[in-house]
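Subject line: Sequence and fold of a protein, written as structure tokens
Enclosed: The protein record, placed directly beneath this head.
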Amino acid sequence: MDSSGSFYKEGLRRPLEEIREDIFFRAGGFQKEAWYGGFSAYIRLGICQPSPGHALEVQKALKRMGYSTRTSENKGKTYILPGTESRSDEKSSLWK
């Protein structure tokens, strides 16, 4: 594929469940994407609030990098958090 990034974009077009970790891919390959800020925040902090409409793309890119994530909503905002299993409301008062 060409050097403009079409190789990784092809992989992100698949459903989240079908994306596999690519140990040779580097985070910098996503730098030109509009959602890169949320992606890089997650890598640094382990949590992020991507721009509206970009949560799935960020989650797919993180999965490609080997991160296990889940999404959670709080007051209409979507957050990407570590792990794949949802926590019950009793266990987490932060997201009430």
In short: The longest strand covers residues 69-74. The chain has one domain: 9-23+30-82.
